[in-house]
Amino acid sequence: MTSHLNTESPCKLICTLDILLGVCTACGRTRGDIAQWTRYSDAQRALANNEASKRMKAFAEADSGTEKGN
């Protein structure tokens, strides 16, 4: 059984970089991830995608808390 690594770019082609965090709020990648993407190995891309996904969930939770007045 082989595991599938998610190595596809999460880019949405609507880059919105949060300068303070150094993270794109559209895809969740860091500036470093974006700049180095074409040089990353499959394992590095999979790790970057995993971390980007976590960031996007955190952004969504923060937005939802803000909307509720928290």
TrEMBL record:
InterPro entries: DUF1289. It holds the Pfam family DUF1289. This is DUF1289 domain-containing protein. The lineage of its organism: Bacteria, Pseudomonadati, Pseudomonadota, Alphaproteobacteria, Maricaulales.
